[in-house]
Amino acid sequence: MTDMRLTMLALLMTFSGLHAQTSDAWKKLDFVLGEWTGVAGEKDTPLGAGQGAFSFQAELKDKIIVRRNVAQYNSGVEHDDLMVIYLDAPNQTPRAIYFDTEGHVVRYNLTFPSAKRAVFESDGSQAGPKYRLTYWMEGLSLNGQFEVAPPGKEYQSYMKWTSVKK
Question: Among 32, 67, 102, 131, which is least packed, fewest CB within 10 Å?
Fold first, then answer.
């Protein structure tokens, strides 16, 4: 009977530890959760000025975070995308996979260089350019920047925006 109690205690401690790891990883993304509206200036994108809305929502009992994004540009271009952020086993590494209406699929690794700053960088498993998407809080604004690095070159800014919570 004592062995069974010790086994149960060990299992409970293991599950509690895993839950704490998961909670800690998601806490670093708390600042992006919610619904946002954003704007980009004429010189902030190659498509011209634009506006859009996006959300970061915890789903599947807080096992994933889903970002949905819709943007419209004064040039007439429209863009929709979806990104799923998840914790990859066995060490609960935060990762993401991105899909858009142009047919892009990008796998990202996440880092958190400082509080309220998240960097999504393509994992290098795909041929072609590398991508980096960064979000950071500045006061009440959630700012973003998307950068592209052609093969063998450094990242260059492709798009910047500022957003506020709805």
Answer: 102
